[in-house]
Amino acid sequence: MxxxxxxxxxxxxxxxxxxxxxxxxxxxxxxxxxxxxxEEVAAGTELGKExxxxxxxxxxxxxLLVLSIVxxxxxxxxxxxxxxxxxxxxxxxxxxxxLLEKISQPIxxxxxxxxxxxxxxxxxxxxxxEDDNESVICKRLKVYREKTSPLINYxxxxxxxxxxxxxxxxxxxxxxxxxxxx
Length: 182
Ligand code: ADP
Fold this sequence. Notes:
The chain contains nine helices and five strands. By secondary structure, the protein is an alpha/beta fold. Helix 1 (15-26) packs across helix 9 (170-181) and helix 2 (33-43) packs across helix 3. The longest helix has 15 residues, at 134-148. The radius of gyration is 16 Å and the shape is globular.
């Protein structure tokens, strides 16, 4: 099993759920920038205050702010890792590349979870997080299409992209993912 991974896919695709399973099974460090940002917001830190209103609008928090969150944890990690929700645009992908070169830990595989827009919207509406109302969801899908989806091509060109169908039960998707990452 590969041990330096990146999960890519639209909001609501199930990245977090699947990333949790893969990390538990393989003792990988799970780095979800969305989760880490929500923790900063809940703790009321300066960084959290800066991020909160941006997140509630469905926009992207600043590249350098997110990078600093990831860098701190990756530089200290001795084990494998899984990045979930980062990078989210080409500029973050380039910053990540520089960071990984510096610490000599290249990405081994990028997993793309593919899923239909209508399923995404239904999943997010039933999840009920603060940024999960209809207008913010539409904004996040738009940001995904415009800013994040160019990364599919970027990683495909590097020859490390693997695609998996994200429809179906958690278990079904999990076994598809395991198969492509083996
Ligand atoms: P989802 O996958 O459902 O969009 P996340 O938990 O990954 O949810 O992210 C929630 C919000 O956190 C995003 O809409 C964005 O505002 C912010 N965020 C998370 N990761 C990043 C990132 N890499 N760059 C900028 N903003 C981010």
